[in-house]
Design goal:
10 helices, about 0% strand, mainly alpha
């Protein structure tokens, strides 16, 4: 009898623990779903109406979420904007890296240019997103706001670049700084080239941009 009672108690405790875990999982899923709705809705409204003309009320109304819930996730619409800028620009890098990994590249500069070219072509086809990101492409690599939104096991362009510098024994003293300069160069020039066609339309500008990127990597490889 004693053994049966103890076994029954253990099973009951186990059932309660599983039930609690299931409830916590559902709460967590619901939290992520609300956050996803806020992000998706805000991105659509920001790109359609602009940030200044989009209110928090507009966002929560379209997302079907209570206004008070908004503040559980974001301080204001500008914090939401920062998260979206980082998340959206990161997605461009992530997709381009996944595409690059389908191919073999003997040279690191060829691989980086392939990735950059893929991102530029994707931005050209999504003008509203380009206008939203503007010159903030590097936020997709360096923003702290990405920490809770991304898969920690995902290998991005930063890790890819640093790993290949080591594997190919490329004598870059500060590989992360070199990558940062490349991304900042791309970020600061591509928007102007696509939107304003200055100093050249993007297809004419690309060869000059890629030549500079090769110089940042290739000349040092050949030392």
């Amino acid at each position: 009898m004693t053994f049966y009672f103890e076994e029954h108690t253990i099973n009951a405790k186990g059932s309660v623990k599983m039930a609690i875990q299931e409830i916590k999982s559902k709460i967590n899923d619901n939290k992520h779903e609300k956050e996803r709705k806020l992000l998706n809705t805000a991105l659509r409204l920001f790109t359609e109406k602009g940030i200044k003309k989009t209110s928090i009320q507009d966002i929560v109304h379209d997302a079907g979420i209570a206004k008070g819930t908004f503040y559980l996730y974001f301080k204001d619409k500008y914090e939401l904007q920062d998260v979206l800028l980082a998340k959206t620009s990161h997605e461009f890098f992530s997709n381009a890296c996944k595409e690059a990994n389908k191919y073999h590249f003997d040279r690191l500069d060829d691989k980086i240019i392939f990735i950059i070219d893929s991102i530029i072509d994707a931005l050209i086809t999504r003008p509203n997103i380009l206008k939203f990101i503007q010159k903030n492409l590097s936020l997709g690599l360096y923003s702290e706001k990405l920490t809770d939104l991304l898969d920690s096991e995902e290998l991005g362009i930063k890790e890819l670049f640093i790993n290949e510098v080591k594997e190919k024994d490329i004598p870059l003293e500060y590989p992360e700084m070199t990558l940062f300069m490349i991304i900042e160069l791309v970020s600061s020039t591509v928007f102007t080239s696509i939107v304003e066609k200055q100093p050249l339309p993007i297809e004419e500008f690309k060869p000059h941009l890629y030549k500079t990127i090769r110089l940042l990597i290739s000349e040092k490889v050949e030392k």
